[in-house]
Predict the 3D structure of the following.
Amino acid sequence: MNARTPANSDDAAHPADERPLNALSFDIEDWFHLVEIDAVANVDDWPGFPSIVERRTDEILGICEEFGVKATFYYLGWIAERYPQLVRRTVDAGHEIGSHSYWHRKVSDLDEANFRDDLTTSIKVIEDAGGAPVTSFRAPSFSITPGTEWAFDVLLDAGLDYDASLFPVARENGGYPCPIQPHLFAEAPSGRTLPELPMSLMRLGPSQVGFSGGGYLRLFPGWLIRRGFESLHRRGLPGVVYLHPRDFAPDSPVVPMSASRRFKSYIGLASTNRKLRMLLQRYRFAPCRDVLRHHLPEETSTCSTS
Ligand SMILES: [Zn+2]
């Protein structure tokens, strides 16, 4: 297949490409931004750790450029404050930027006031760094869970246009039961709605599991990932890829943790680059914003005035 550049050379409106649209996204944080791991929990230690984030994010930007594809980069505020030129390079390359919070704390561990402070701070530093508006959010570890629906009121109050935080089945540290298709989230206490782009699931035996990002993408073979995409496409649904700089870093420092968590955190690191390239070569991708506009055209444009 030699259709790399034409396949992804434009956004959702490319008239010549009728293939299903999928979302490409990256959560930009460092190897030590793992939740619930004692060895990296002290934020005072973070500045002293050797960083991989700039080099690996530039590697991701290079892959996107090579394939002529645009994505959404959810920056941690803590990263944007320290690497403003990296955020600027992301914007200058034509990508969408969003917030992945400031401190990478689970939403489910915060109250409404603390989440509001964290989100507001993150939006300011990311916008200052990138010189472009932040219009969406992805929660650390998909940690908007049942009982934290107030988070959507905080996102609406902050003027965001949409959310991409929900993982539609329960998982370690997160998950929220919801439809897997793009939809209007309507459970905020205020009664207001916000467009939601949930993560993708596929059926595997009796279970619905993730396959298109993070440890799932690193663990699963390419044929199984393709099966997941094709299952979604048959139902008219987009796939949502989400990856982190550390997913591309076999040389990332290994943090002491439980055996099961270590497996999930470090399996398949050497395969991510190849699998992402396989997906970009095969399928059509765009930033999350464009995928939502494609699926919820009126609702998204209505909310964008907030
Ligand atoms: Zn994260």
